[in-house]
């Protein structure tokens, strides 16, 4: 019975240590998207573009206007936020480092209608 218990414990250690290693090789971008009055914007599209590889990760803001992009490769990103009725927001040179959380909040300007 001891051998089985040791085997289970070893398997547990491998999975938990592996998860810890993965978390230590990536970073996170999170924030809140609001309108000019400070009201949150739910359902806004948020895209992080890794500049070196031109790869993207995308999500949508929740009902409270917040978003989180986890497990991002280390590097420099451009973060783009869009929502219907608003101008696109873009922030370049967002540096993601190992194990860090980068805060990128945005205040979206109302779209100007053309005649």
Q: How would you describe what is shown here?
A:
With 115 residues, this protein is of the alpha/beta class. It has a single domain, classed as Immunoglobulin-like, CATH 2.60.40.10. It is 19% helix and 43% strand. It contains 1 helix and 8 strands; from the N terminus they run H-E-E-E-E-E-E-E-E. The chain has one helix at 2-23; strands spanning 26-34, 45-50, 55-60, 66-73, 75-82, 89-96, 101-103, 106-107. It is globular. It starts with a helix and ends in an 8-residue tail after the last strand. Mean pLDDT is 86; it is low at 8-23.
Average pLDDT level: 86
Task: Return the structural class.
Answer: alpha/beta
Low-confidence stretches: 8-23
Please tell me the total number of domains.
1
Shape designation: globular
Beta content comes to 35-45%
- Please tally the β strands and state the result: 8
What is the CATH class designation? Mainly Beta
For this structure, the CATH topology is Immunoglobulin-like
Question: Termini, distance in Å?
Answer: 79 Å
**CATH-defined architecture:** Sandwich
Number of helices: 1
Helix content, binned percent = 10-25%
- For CATH, the homologous superfamily is named as Immunoglobulins
């Amino acid at each position: 019975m001891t051998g089985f218990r040791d085997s289970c414990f070893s398997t547990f250690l491998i999975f938990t240590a592996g998860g810890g290693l993965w978390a230590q090789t990536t970073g996170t971008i999170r924030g809140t998207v609001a309108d000019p009055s400070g009201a949150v914007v739910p359902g806004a599209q948020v895209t992080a573009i890794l500049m070196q590889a031109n790869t993207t990760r995308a999500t949508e803001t929740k009902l409270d206007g917040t978003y989180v992009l986890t497990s991002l490769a280390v590097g420099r990103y451009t973060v783009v936020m869009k929502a219907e009725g608003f101008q696109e927001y873009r922030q370049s040179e967002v540096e993601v480092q190992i194990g860090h959380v980068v805060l990128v909040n945005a205040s979206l300007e109302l779209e100007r209608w053309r005649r």
